[in-house]
Write a structure and sequence with these properties.
Number of domains: 2
Number of strands: 10
Helix content: 10-25%
Radius of gyration: 23 Å
Shape: globular
CATH superfamily of the largest domain: MutM-like, N-terminal
CATH class of the largest domain: Alpha Beta
Bound molecules: zinc ion
Oligomer: single chain
Structural class: alpha+beta
Length: about 325
């Protein structure tokens, strides 16, 4: 599941297209209807935790109510009005992939299975006419965004076919580039609420609020995944931060010392920031316990599905020696 750092990388890819107009659309999403994005201008993009937002306007001015506070417009490039002329001559998009892109990439979209199973990209029908339109993108378990290239098949499927993944949405921009969205859930949304104090990758991340949440009398591994306090934090960051802080995932937050919880928050922030930086430098992600057999000290790593009753259950890795449980696990009493 893409976590905060991955979504930031997608945000970076998208932000290079801000100020450009959508000339052509493609993609398999029936719910979203990619053609509704035709000729709109991408005027802003924001990332909040694991969610990405793209703002489309009907005109190049990008005027209207509801812009996010905090100067979200400041990075907009000068708008490119000249491109509108070219766009006017562009034929309207056909509905069902009859159109073929210059590189033939659209052809594969017709191979897409479009049964009732393809219902994961829930969305409203179309945006409000004339209004600013925010497209919310969630990445689920396997979502991704590619810029100026399509994802290719990494292996053959069960039938032995090498079939490339089919993007749900493709946006071709007047600058000549394109964005392809894979396995994303997309829907039109109200103006996103900006809450950087919850976002683990924001400079405004509110440590005090996070520490207070961690101090609850529940296993810390539950609290870490709570997006109300740790927006952008996912299972990988959870496992790695707990290992680095030497905290057992089922330790009760209320029984851990303040310095201990401080250390945990430090590692959450540091690991997330390093991961993000590594992404931009093309480095592979480096984990110490996540999906590992042994911890760096050579101990056997345990794994178990953990989560609050009725809540999100996630496979969790930890080292029982490096991460002792607080309070210690009860040992069965043998009575004779
Ligand atoms: Zn260990």
């Amino acid at each position: 599941m893409p976590e905060g750092p991955s979504v930031r990388k997608f945000h970076h890819l998208v932000s290079t297209f801000v100020g450009q107009q959508v000339l052509k659309t493609g993609g398999s999403s029936k719910k979203l209807c990619p053609a509704t994005l035709q000729s709109l201008w991408l005027q802003d993009t924001q990332v909040h935790g694991k969610k990405l937002f793209l703002r489309f306007d009907a005109d190049a001015e990008g005027e209207g109510e509801g812009g996010a506070p905090g100067g979200s417009h400041q990075h907009l490039e000068p708008l490119r009005k000249t491109a509108r002329k070219e766009a006017a001559g562009d034929p309207a998009p056909e509905a069902s992939g009859q159109k073929t892109a210059a590189d033939g990439s659209f052809q594969s979209m017709e191979l897409l299975p479009r049964g009732p199973g393809d219902s994961s990209d829930l969305a409203g029908d179309s945006p409000l006419p004339g209004a600013q339109q925010w497209l919310q993108v969630s990445f689920g378990l396997f979502g991704s965004i590619w810029a100026n290239e399509f994802s290719r098949a990494k292996k053959a499927n069960k039938r032995g076919d090498w079939r490339d993944p089919v993007p749900r949405l493709v946006l071709y921009f007047d600058g000549g580039g394109f964005l392809a969205f894979y396995n994303c859930q997309m829907s039109w949304s109200p103006t996103p609420v900006v809450e950087p104090h919850r976002d683990i990758l924001s400079e405004e991340f509110h440590r005090g609020q996070a520490l207070e949440a961690l101090g609850q009398p529940q296993p810390v591994c539950y609290t870490l995944l709570d997006q109300r306090y740790f927006s952008g934090l996912g299972n990988i960051i959870k496992n790695e931060a707990l290992y680095r802080a030497r905290i057992h995932p089922l330790s009760l937050g209320s029984l851990l010392t303040s310095p201990c919880l401080e250390t945990l928050v430090d590692h959450v922030v540091a690991f997330s920031a390093e991961w993000l930086q590594g992404k931009f430098q093309g480095q592979p992600r480096h984990t110490q316990v996540y999906q590992k057999e042994q911890c760096p000290s050579g101990h056997q790593v345990l794994r178990e599905v953990l989560g609050p009753p009725g809540g999100l259950q996630r496979l969790t890795w930890w080292c029982p020696q490096c991460q002792p449980r607080v309070p210690p696990e009860e040992t069965p009493q043998h009575q004779s």
